[in-house]
Amino acid sequence: MAKTKLVKRKLSERARVASRRTAPTRRRAPRPEPRFVAVKGATRRDAGAVQLEIGRAGAARVKRAIYPPGFRWSVDMKPVVRSDLCMHAHVGFLASGALRIEYPDGCTVEYEAPQIVAIDPGHDGAVLGDAPAVLIEFDFEGDTVNRLGMPGSHRHP
To answer: What is the pTM of this model?
Structure first.
């Protein structure tokens, strides 16, 4: 009798193992791409076609700007800002995508992620390629140029 119970127990264990193997597996929902998930502790706003998330870090701000494919400052932001060129300095890290920066003197600079970025005020800019450009910036609002020791406008060394 004891032997029969042992055999039944082994069969039932085998059946449980087999059912685990054949049971449908649950698929986890894919995780969203971290570069595009809402930033904790930041305030979101849209500026033209650009998605901005801004948070404070001491006296500075940390910003994530997502520029969509096809974005060009002179087309998408000029009507919003009412200025011929972007007069902000941009300092940070290009996390993904590619940008082309153009200055009135004809100088052009291209950035491709991953890359450190330092863009002087007085520029036009465009996203290159089919992917959005994600730029992580550090600034001091109207005092970025002075606080980071940048030139007030583009110049050649």
So the answer is: 0.76
